[in-house]
Amino acid sequence: MTIDLKHSDLVAEPKNKNVASGSDELKLDGGFKAPKDVSNDGFVAPENNFYGNAFRNYDAETERRKTVEEFYRLSHINQTYDFVKRMREEYGKLDKVEMSIWECCELLNNVVDDSDPDLDEPQIEHLLQTAEAIRKDYPNEDWLHLTALIHDLGKVLLLPQFGELPQWAVVGDTFPLGCAFDESIVHHKYFKENPDYNNPAYSTKNGVYSEGCGLDKVVISWGHDDYMYLVAKANKTTLPSAALFIIRFHSFYALHKAGAYKHLMNEEDVENLKWLHIFNKYDLYSKSKVRVDVEKVKPYYQSLIEKYFPTKLKW
Q: Needs which cofactor (predicted)?
């Protein structure tokens, strides 16, 4: 599949991307470094999505508004603590399919995300847009390029061979279960119909958790994020912990946009969140109608897959 890429339309020339040394850097988990000011880099974020509205504007009058709101209504009613526990147990068996990372990327051509108000293109387009934008600005962080490529692969849960789960159990913003639902979560009003909403054990700030317990201890709403995290860990990826953090929490906007639930984070989470903030700008704002020459970039990403993953993975 060959599609034209006008890279200059997607990202501007990077400014100083020397992340090897300097006083304006923070050392992150695993020895990686990132600038303190993550907004001062080469990527130029567009002001509007291709519908002409601000990104993540859930109130804009677009053809997708009703679809997106109905999606979140179903998500907020059905995502419960017990439901997520069952899904993690079932899909943690990894007994659905055996295939390579790139084979999974190609499967994603069949997926469109109903929760996304900004784009209705096949998902592989978004993966490559994100990865290529990051690659341009952070050429030495190959683990981050690959993380961008694979971060949404869990959306294959929508396909028949993976159980054909409903959209509300696969995509959309994620949020913790087992504690109070923060009001920053999009379409929060629908949580009132969730069985967990009036459960005293789950209705306090900490709920069943303790302050500083670490997000790895927290049950997060089930979807593509948590599934891909389980797949990567079980197949013994050598990606750093920051990559796994990005994969699992990139849809957790209440945390990395609104700053909610930080009281549950531990020190490693704090460090990894810095990388997630960098990643998120590319994940959100690289969504566009600019197309990628898939065959041209494929050899590079296949080399990264070979570096960080086995040839075949259990899914």
A: Fe cation
Using CB atoms within 10 Å of the CB of residue 100, give its burial: 0 to 12 exposed, 13 to 18 middle, 19+ buried.
middle
- Specify the 3-state DSSP secondary structure of 176: strand
Positions at the binding site: 56, 113-115, 126, 151-152, 155, 172-173, 224, 250-251, 283
Annotated binding site for Fe cation: 126, 151-152, 224, 250, 283
DSSP-derived secondary structure letter, 261: T
Distance linking the first and last C-alpha atoms of the chain: 25
Interacting residues of 30 by C-beta distance below 8 A, sequence separation 6+: 240, 241, 242
Contact 118, 129 (CB under 8 A): no
Instruction: Could you list the residues known to form a binding site for substrate, using ranges.
Output: 56, 113-115, 155, 172-173, 250-251
Q: Cβ contacts of residue 254 below 8 Å, gap of 6+?
A: 173, 175, 182, 184, 185, 260, 261
Return the closest-CA partner of residue 168 out of 86, 74, 251: 74
Please, which residues have CB within 8 angstroms of residue 187's CB and are 6 or more apart in sequence?
Answer: 58, 69, 72, 73, 76
**In tens digits, what is the pLDDT along the chain, a chain of 315 residues?**
332 323 323 333 333 343 333 333 333 333 334 444 444 445 454 444 344 444 444 454 556 688 899 999 999 999 999 999 999 999 999 999 999 999 999 998 888 766 655 455 666 778 898 999 999 999 999 999 999 999 999 999 999 999 999 999 999 999 999 999 999 999 999 999 999 999 999 999 999 999 999 999 999 999 999 999 999 999 999 999 999 999 999 999 999 999 999 999 999 999 999 999 999 999 876 555 667 888 999 999 999 999 999 999 999
Q: Partners of 219 in the beta sheet?
A: 177
CB 175 within 8 A of CB 228: no
Q: Is the pTM of this model over 0.90?
A: no
